[in-house]
Design brief:
Blueprint: H1 2-13, H2 20-59, H3 66-95
Helix pairs in contact: 1-2, 2-3
Length: 96
Amino acid sequence: MATEYNTKILQIAGASPPDAASILALNDFTQATLATLEALSNSYAAMPAAHRDLIAVASDKSTGYAGLIALGAEANRLKGLMEELAAANAATAFSQ
């Protein structure tokens, strides 16, 4: 991410005259991408505990399916983050 940012910012900042709107757009895109990557990392880190919870819920008939529903909701949230990151990357690739 840093290498890609450095390459792009040098190109934009080196233009004559420098294009402030492009610099701001690149910064916005970079911040959004970093936030998405952080959320994905957090979700990935939570997977072992989620798997333990899934095993516990599946093996204990008295707890019901609330844990499974929560796991499904988290999976859907993670899917949305992946789609958001893919769309952002596609938009960046298209604009180059």
